[in-house]
Design brief:
heterotrimer; A mainly alpha (about 130); B alpha+beta (about 270); C mainly alpha (about 120); B: alpha+beta; Ubiquitin-like (UB roll); 2 domains; five-stranded mixed β-sheet; two-stranded antiparallel ribbon; about 35% helix; elongated; C: 3 helical TM bundles of succinate and fumarate reductases
Amino acid sequence: MSRARPYLRPAEPLWWAHPPYLAYTLREATGLAVAGYAVVLLAGLIGLASGESAYAAWLNFLKSPWSLALHLLFLTGMIAHVWTWFQIMPKTMPRLVIGRRVLPQRWITAAGLAVAMASLIIVLLVAVWTQP
Amino acid sequence: MPPDAATAIAAREIVIEVLRYRPETNREPVRQAYRVPFTDDMSVLQGLQYIKDHLDGTLSFRWSCRMAICGSCGMMIGGAPRLACMTVVREYYPGPFTVEPLAHFPIERDLVVTVGGFVKKIESIYPYLIPKTQRRLDEGEYLQTPLQLARYETFSDCINCMLCYAACPQFGENPDFIGPGAMALLQRYNGDSRDGAQTKRMELVHTDNGAWSCTAVGYCSEVCPKQVDPANAVNQNKTRSALDYFLRFLGRPAGSGSAASGEVEP
Amino acid sequence: MKRSVAPLFWLPFGAGGMLSALIGPALVLITGLMAPTGTGLAPGFMSFARASAFARHPLGKLILFGVIALFLWHGAERIYLTLRDMRAAGKLALMWVCYGTAGALTFVTAAALVIIGF
């Protein structure tokens, strides 16, 4: 015991960039798409509050190739977010018991994804139905 | 001889690179390579035992049951937290592959890590049933239905092997994080219908070193050899803790409601 | 024992995550791809008149505020935790930058909705 000299290995500062943690980092990165899209919406809202010409400038920006590319990125991020969100969601819930059996977490994931799919369709339909 | 027996007997060789550390001789850990003959059914633990028995008697490592129930032989094999008794050498053929002590823990010697911190965390979560109301002996046992058992049973399967701590990067960043294993044990008791000390344990959960050090990486549950799902134990307590943060002013004690035991209200 | 302040930010993160999981892709499609290119939606879908009418309506205000604010707070928490993982700066500094930005932009959102009026 007198010769004990425990050695603590220095932590790897780039752990988040290597497997198996890279997948987790990419999942968290989808937050950029969610926040980024909100910022674009906010810009539009500010334009709306500022007047017709400011809002028209925002609409023009949305038509630009840059914006379309950006929104494709947002869409990719959003879809990745949807997928990974329902993978992790069951972990935040206590084990649900149906009858005598514990409900498998992948069923909760499947149910969540199904609801998201339905939600996507409903919102699109609402948009189409309320168009001018 | 039948073909599989012949293959089993014919020995192949593989190089195992073990991280050595002897505090009296080494300033810091150093890799040492050993050429080990192996058969298809041989575990990494048997490989280490071969090294100790035939190549280098100074190699130190923990092991006991060699059947994945004692939790002693956790180490980093090929860079991942594994039980040595439950990992077969042939998985790494042609090799070489590395065997290192469990990540995020101080090394005592060779593959032996300091477990004192982990033991203290286990002790800190009141790891015993504190009944809601004491029953006298003549009143008989505390009764529990299979359904009530199902709600916490997986958390009682933990063998304290610490693989989840080696897997958890947030524990690596913050050694004071109570960690997945301790939280699984905490939830084993909080989720037990016979227990009444949820509020006491939740006090630990509410802190920065409780559930809130976790960022839901989820790797802990992936490496667990007993499918305990510690990620679930930690993250369901995030939900509980967050709701309690806002609802405590309404006079509803933390964790004592149905949410704590996982009961689904009809 | 000292409670963490994390739940304050975790609940909006969760709400924003759930909301964006349910309607995020649809919104990006509609406002960012379909309406600007006139694909599947009439060209005047997001015209000034229609947008103003929407933003003037109390329900419209609620939706706009809810979507923008919750999406921002969801992103802020994820960005904060990832920057912390990357050891980009001290914990307190990162909290101020991430949550501070989300807070400021939430205020701007509310202000814009008030200015738009009824």
